[in-house]
Write a structure and sequence with these properties.
CATH superfamily of the largest domain: Tetratricopeptide repeat domain
Largest sheet: none
Number of domains: 3
Radius of gyration: 25 Å
CATH topology of the largest domain: Serine Threonine Protein Phosphatase 5, Tetratricopeptide repeat
Low-confidence stretches: 1-36
Number of strands: 0
Strand content: under 5%
Helix content: over 70%
CATH architecture of the largest domain: Alpha Horseshoe
Structural class: mainly alpha
Length: about 280
């Protein structure tokens, strides 16, 4: 987040075997909807291409073998020129193998075929961001969220751009930093809501409150409590809950969280917060 690759002479046999197994599993579906045939075939070919690409993780793989796998992906697109998943698969392979321009071309093709395809939009957003094209990246991330609003990854990517690169977006989107912070907070909240067991999303949402002009500290406490439920770093969670309790002027609560911190590496900041609590 490696299995051996089939030799060229066995490639067609591997595809037929995979297709046979998959079609057997889907026999009831196929009986009801014959039109699914082409998409099933494309799906099988995409999975086969991905399987072949796993061998490239071996650092000793030859240039010839890498080219052979690349041609499998290109053949996939030649056989299925109108398939958005096929275009996305080839683009992702090319990007991973440092062929950015070619990858972007195929993601754009996927987007022309299906303007509201979330995967193509989010991938283009990431590519544009790497190239320093912040406005175009943000627009693609926004399109991805609108196209597939139940995908937590897309919300997280958009939130990151709105939060970290808000100075670049204020003029482009004709808004201000405070508005972008609110938008980023919303995206992080959605990412955490849609993926409630993801620690990174929970932390991003909770930490964003510290950057807000007028944060809702009650909501921040709920966010950090959720982080604490997921994290093995209890001391860090208690420290943040103590900080938020101070913001809420809850002296007893803050001291209670500070007392739970046992890691000596937090001693200095712990004592600083304790003094603030005692002064309330």
């Amino acid at each position: 987040m490696i299995i051996s690759n089939c030799a060229r002479s066995n490639w067609s046999k591997c595809k037929r075997a995979a297709a046979t197994l998959f079609i057997l599993l889907l026999t009831p579906v196929l009986a009801r909807a014959q039109s699914i045939g082409p998409s099933v075939k494309t799906w099988i070919e995409i999975k086969a291409a991905h399987k072949a690409s796993e061998a490239l993780a071996n650092p000793n793989v030859t240039a010839k073998e890498r080219l052979r796998v690349e041609q499998i992906y290109y053949q996939l697109v030649r056989d299925n020129p109108q398939s958005v998943p096929a275009q996305n698969a080839l683009a992702a392979f090319l990007w991973k193998n440092r062929k950015a321009e070619a990858a972007i071309e195929h993601w754009r093709t996927a987007q022309r075929l299906e303007p509201e395809n979330g995967e193509a939009a989010n991938s283009l957003g990431g590519a544009y961001l790497r190239m320093g094209r912040v406005r175009e990246a943000a627009e693609q991330f926004l399109l991805a969220v609108r196209s597939e609003s139940d995908n937590p990854d897309y919300h997280f990517d958009l939130g990151n751009v709105e939060f970290l690169l808000r100075r670049d977006l204020t003029a482009a989107w004709k808004t201000d930093s405070a508005d972008l912070l609110q938008r980023a907070l919303f995206q992080f909240r959605e990412a955490s809501r849609l993926a409630p067991t993801d620690l990174e999303y929970a932390r991003a949402y909770a930490e964003t409150f510290y950057g807000m002009p007028n944060p809702d500290w009650d909501e921040a406490q709920i966010a950090w409590q959720h982080y604490l439920e997921l994290s093995t770093n209890r001391n860090f969670g208690y420290l943040q809950l103590a900080r938020v309790s101070l913001k809420r002027h809850k002296k007893t609560e803050a001291l209670s969280f500070l007392d739970k911190i046992s890691d000596s590496s937090y001693s200095e900041v712990k004592e600083k917060l304790r003094k603030q609590a005692e002064a309330l």
